[in-house]
Design a protein that fits this description.
Length: about 525
């Protein structure tokens, strides 16, 4: 909108070039170009850019709209440029973001409007139930033990198995249990593609007897939503041999329903906000902050491990939080003036409003706290987990989801209370990321992670797995490249957040809100 006019006798002929930056890299590579639109300062481009989206990565994009079109980018008139992260576009209202173009000194370069939408990859899931009637008898001493095998047809005319029902023993009139299958598995999203169904009689030795077959399509199956559909089961061999052959029984589709499987992007586009809270370990085991051996030590040339972990995670999550205000706490320190030990003190020293403006605001408050509090102990997680859980419990309709980042150097002191707090929090819209810094052993953290064994406390099991633990040392780049270290860390610790958010929404049957047109 309102681009600079660089042509003398007419308006500019704009084209937009998209550049992408690799994760942990500073190099920009051209990804693609829009079409050229002649003689306008307000172009609406039709050509789309299709990008793979990863929540856990900072995917930096640069949009350059050169003016007069030429094969050589450098020969075009420079109209400004815009820098944006893909997450910012997806996290903006209705997936629509407007950014000013900059880069031409002393001039307003206009704006660029970006719209992101998720490509529908046929995310529907079908639930259906079938029964059969008067199937051929295949067993000598009893009736048949029938089951169904579903095949999806491929482009080359071959068939791929996509589902088997259970075996119903000793009957010629089986009723199979309802089952669910993704539409893409059934027909690859092509509603008219052939779906072949074979009927077999189960044999213990695996040499199942073929009873017959029939063919249908997703479109035909879907008609069963309003009526029963009956299919004749035919055995081609019998049909050829017997003149009076009619069929080998019938299969009836009793029910057929379709549900959409929602994605993380559906919820973000529907307005779900990610609320980010930080808790930093201020226990004495970190070492005196002014000493180079301390885990809190920040030299003039590089950030501490704490600051790196905070920046790596926070800079990605902030794209999905509209107000960019982040509550930030410390734990395990003696506070001035009376030396009282606290396990959830606000880093900005404001008890009524512990929120900091942006990740830079959190970093500033963290460094300020290091200068004013006394590092002490013990290492208690439960107070800050309960604090965030209390906030999460206030809004459980799916519009808010909380992510708590705990950065710590070591052995946890209140393991029983922490397990209890996590089990309680697992029923709430929240996730917990724990980053371990320094050389300590972190066995207790692995137990909290719950990937191998579901976390429990006093006989209660966690409703969902909501904790992700990683030791920071596993992500440090050998060459000392901090940008690469941060990218690696963020990729791993944030990878589980979309699934954890979806698991909460699914257990509560919360559907994404429809974005306004």
């Amino acid at each position: 909108r309102n681009l600079l006019d660089m042509d003398t006798f007419s308006k500019s002929d704009p084209v937009v070039v998209l550049f992408v930056q690799g994760s942990g890299s500073s190099e920009w590579k051209e990804f693609g170009r829009t079409e050229v639109i002649d003689n306008t300062l307000n172009p609406d481009f039709v050509r789309k850019f299709v990008l793979d989206y990863y929540f856990e990565e900072k995917q930096n994009l640069r949009f350059d709209p050169p003016g007069s079109h030429s094969a050589v980018l450098g020969a075009q008139d420079f109209l400004g440029q815009a820098f944006v992260a893909l997450g910012e576009v997806i996290g903006s209202q209705r997936g629509r973001l407007e950014r000013p173009l900059t880069g031409v000194p002393g001039k307003r370069c206009g704006t660029i409007l970006l719209l992101a939408e998720e490509l529908s990859n046929c995310r529907d899931i079908v639930t259906m139930q079938l029964c059969a009637n008067k199937l051929d008898k295949k067993d000598f001493f009893g009736k048949s033990d029938p089951f169904l095998v579903f095949y999806r047809s491929n482009e080359d005319g071959t068939f791929t198995i996509c589902h088997k029902t259970e075996v119903v023993k000793n009957t010629l009139n089986p009723v199979w249990q309802p089952f669910t299958i993704p539409v893409r598995a059934l027909c690859n999203g092509d509603y008219d593609r052939t779906v072949k169904i074979d009927v077999y009689d189960w044999d213990r030795d695996g040499s199942h007897d073929f009873i017959g077959e029939f063919a249908t399509s997703y479109r035909e199956l879907s008609r069963a939503q309003s009526q029963f559909t009956v299919y004749e089961v035919l055995n081609p061999r019998k049909k050829c041999k017997k003149k009076k052959y009619v069929n080998s029984g019938t299969v009836t589709l009793l029910s057929f329903s379709v549900e959409s499987e929602f994605t993380f992007v559906d919820y973000i586009r529907g307005g779900t906000q990610l609320n980010f809270t930080v808790a930093i370990d201020f226990t004495a085991s970190n070492g005196i902050p002014s000493q180079p051996t301390s885990l809190h030590y920040a030299s003039p040339y590089q950030l501490s491990a704490y600051a790196l972990a905070l920046k790596a995670v926070g800079e990605i999550i902030q794209d999905y939080d509209s107000d960019k205000l982040f509550p930030a706490y410390g734990f395990g320190a003696k506070l001035p003036p009376d030396g009282k030990i606290s396990h959830q003190f606000p880093l900005n020293n404001n008890v009524d409003n512990p929120s900091c403006a942006g990740i830079e605001g959190v970093l500033e408050s963290y460094l300020q706290s290091l200068r004013t509090v006394q590092l002490y102990g013990p290492t208690n997680f439960a107070p800050v987990i309960n604090q965030v859980a209390g906030t999460a419990a206030q809004v459980t309709d799916g519009s808010q989801y909380h992510v708590l980042l705990i950065i710590t150097d070591g052995v946890i002191s209140d393991m029983l209370q922490t397990k209890e707090a996590i089990v309680t929090a697992s029923a709430l819209p929240m996730s917990i990321i724990i980053v371990g810094v320094g050389p300590a052993e972190f066995e207790a953290m692995e137990e909290l992670d719950g990937d191998e064994v579901r976390l429990s406390s006093r006989g209660r099991y966690a409703e969902r797995d909501i904790v992700q633990f990683v030791p920071f040392r596993d992500y440090v780049d050998d060459s000392g490249n901090q940008v690469l270290s941060m990218a690696r860390l963020a990729k791993d610790v944030l990878a589980e957040i979309p699934e954890q958010l979806l698991s909460y929404m699914k257990t509560r049957d919360i559907k994404p809100r429809q974005a306004d047109p």
